[in-house]
Amino acid sequence: MTTDPTALREQAREWGRSFVDLPPWEPLSERLSLILAAPYDDWPLPLAPPQASLWLLVDRASASALPEAIRRPLVDTGVVVERRPATISDPAVELTIRTAEAVERSLEGVSRRDLEVRWLLAHAEPVADRLRRLERLAEQARLLPDDGLERATRSLWLDAYASVRALWSLPSEGSRALVAAGELAGALLRIACLLDHGAHPTAERLEVDGSETRIGLRLVHWLDDLRAALGGDATAGRRSVNAAEQVLAEVRSILAERYRDRDWLRDPASYELRSRRR
To answer: What is the per-residue pLDDT for 278?
Structure first.
């Protein structure tokens, strides 16, 4: 199988086109939007199996014409997932079928998954989209709701603080400490992408894209140690765990430029307790 990104993208696009040319989708072709999700230039990642991600968007009114087996889960939950396994010549493809209305609802929220959807839409490319739905959704994806940036950042900051707090009660080496350090890295890289881009990618892209942000560049040596620790380097593991509190302070100093007066940044432990009583 080729690993050339351009060839792999085109194979995925062709499979997607052939999928929507068949029943029950072909009669709805005018109302469908088929998009290639996150078509990065470096896809697939080194050593990773090539798997393309396609999204097929359809409005709820058009979905009512689909067979019951597809219509019910699509209308009830807003999503159906189809998977094509890899072959000798073609990459694996995951096709996510969603109602356009479900995607629009995601753009009203700032949960982890909502922010991943925003990132995906901002980086996606159309395959078949006569309604130019992706263009409109991508524009919406770049605009967070009022106070959305702070709400998302606050949630991730509290996650980061909880990870460091967990490290206080763990030895500086061993798998449990690395799990907590990994959770800290995930929260901080999501904050990094959120501040620079207004969204963050899914987990498989987080280290790649987060490392190129302002925060990511400040944490590069710590991330290198954590990566080495996951590869079995015990000394790097101790360094990454021991430096976790310093890393948190580094990110706090950047967040303070915008949120210096916020209780959740200055005293996250007290803020969490107050929040739970509400």
So the answer is: 44
With a CB cutoff of 8 Å and minimum separation 6, the contacts of 268 are: 157, 158, 161
Check if the beta carbon of residue 154 is closer than 8 Å to that of residue 54: no
Q: Write out pLDDT tens, residues 267-277.
A: 998 898 775 54
Name the one residue in this structure whose structure tokens are 């096709």.
95
Query: What pLDDT score was predicted for residue 6?
Result: 77
Residue 150, token pair as written in the block? 């702070």
CA–CA gap between residue 101 and residue 272 (Å, rounded):
33
Strands (E), 50-101: 51-58, 79-84, 92-99
In this structure, which amino acid lies at residue 89?
A: S
pTM of the model: 0.88
Distances (CA, A) of 186 to 55, 67, 132: 25, 40, 34
**Adjacent-strand bridge partners of 58:** 99
User: Under a CB-based contact definition with an 8 Å cutoff, are residues 64 and 75 in contact?
Assistant: yes
Q: How far apart are CA 6 and CA 189, in angstroms?
A: 28
pLDDT at 176 over 60: yes
CB-based contact 71:59 (threshold 8 Å) = no
Separation between Cα atoms, residue 273 and residue 278, nearest integer Å: 9
Residue (of 237, 244, 198) closest to 219 by Cα position: 244
What's the CA gap between 118 and 261, in Å, rounded?
28
Rg of the chain over CA atoms, in angstroms? 21
Could you tell me if 69 and 76 are in contact, meaning their C-beta atoms sit under 8 angstroms apart?
A: no
Alpha helices by DSSP H, listed for 67-172, are 68-77, 100-106, 112-123, 133-141, 148-168
